């Protein structure tokens, strides 16, 4: 059955755009959104409905809700909270204002977007679904990634509670824990942040190694976004979708990590 699906953060080259394409290929009606619709040319060229949505603006979210309501007759089958950002820096060198912005986007914006779309989700004829894009870093505590990991871990906790609170209204809530996938995350970070450490950083002796991580220069092979999206859409199209979906390189290892003692991974990272 074709569903109506709204996805946040669908700029070309990102995971939201890959999901939008995969859902459209399945036959679903997709509303691809971004703060700037001009950044979704490939989706628009594919005949997809593209809408403006700035998840940090109440006015923008309300305007998008009104548009979707008009287009669907007042309901929405699935909301995918994909919009987000990253920030890599040793915690002792991190900019508090940047951490504050990160938490507003990765956590508070998800809560507010879901609040405002709730009436449309409740009106879905066969029940609805909310999908929150978290990350494997909710389990794998990686050096220099604490701010990002904390924001995603916070969202994972909120997702688990939201699942309980929305279950009585026939709304399922899924935690999408994504591993290493090719995306615009680190490219966007390089545009926004300096990859150099502060001059007085205590980590100056290993700045070269840290800068590689900050810039996203990993040695591991990343999963293609279309492969990831196709698998995720398959998971979300099951009659009973998993409460947590683990997809992407290192996702399986992260899932296994949740069953192992903390000291094991502390030792592994310390040696690295």
From TrEMBL:
Pfam families for this protein: adh_short
InterPro entries: NAD(P)-bd_dom_sf (IPR036291), Sc_DH/Rdtase_CS (IPR020904), SDR_fam (IPR002347)
EC numbers: 1.1.1.101
Top EC group: oxidoreductase
Annotated GO MF terms: acylglycerone-phosphate reductase (NADP+) activity
Keywords, sorted A to Z: NADP, Oxidoreductase
Gene3D superfamilies from the UniProt entry: NAD(P)-binding Rossmann-like Domain
Family named by the database record: Belongs to the short-chain dehydrogenases/reductases (SDR) family.
Protein name, entry field: NADPH-dependent 1-acyl dihydroxyacetone phosphate reductase
């Amino acid at each position: 059955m074709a569903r109506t699906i709204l996805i946040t953060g669908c700029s070309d080259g990102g995971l939201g755009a890959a999901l939008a394409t995969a859902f459209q290929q399945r036959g679903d009606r997709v509303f691809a959104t971004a703060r700037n619709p001009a950044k979704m040319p490939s989706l628009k060229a594919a005949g997809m409905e593209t809408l403006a949505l700035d998840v940090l603006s109440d006015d923008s979210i309300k305007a998008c809700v009104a548009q979707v309501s008009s287009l669907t007759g007042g309901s929405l089958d699935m909301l995918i909270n994909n919009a987000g950002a990253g920030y890599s820096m040793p915690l002792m060198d991190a900019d508090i204002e940047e951490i504050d912005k990160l938490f507003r986007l990765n956590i508070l914006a998800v809560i507010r977007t879901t609040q405002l779309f709730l009436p449309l989700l409740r009106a879905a004829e066969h029940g609805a679904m909310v999908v929150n894009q978290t990350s494997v870093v909710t389990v794998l505590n990686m050096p220099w990634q604490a701010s990002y990991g904390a924001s995603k871990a916070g969202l994972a906790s909120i997702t688990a509670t939201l699942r309980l609170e929305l279950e009585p209204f026939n709304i399922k809530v899924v935690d999408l824990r994504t591993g290493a996938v090719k995306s615009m995350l680190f490219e966007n970070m390089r545009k926004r942040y300096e990859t150099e450490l502060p001059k007085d950083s205590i980590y100056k002796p290993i700045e070269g190694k840290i800068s590689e991580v900050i810039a996203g220069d990993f040695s591991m092979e990343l999963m293609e976004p279309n492969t990831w999206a196709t698998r995720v859409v398959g998971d979300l199209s099951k009659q009973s979708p998993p409460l947590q979906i683990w997809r992407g390189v290192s996702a399986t290892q992260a899932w296994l990590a949740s069953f192992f003692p903390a000291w094991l991974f502390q030792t592994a990272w310390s040696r690295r």
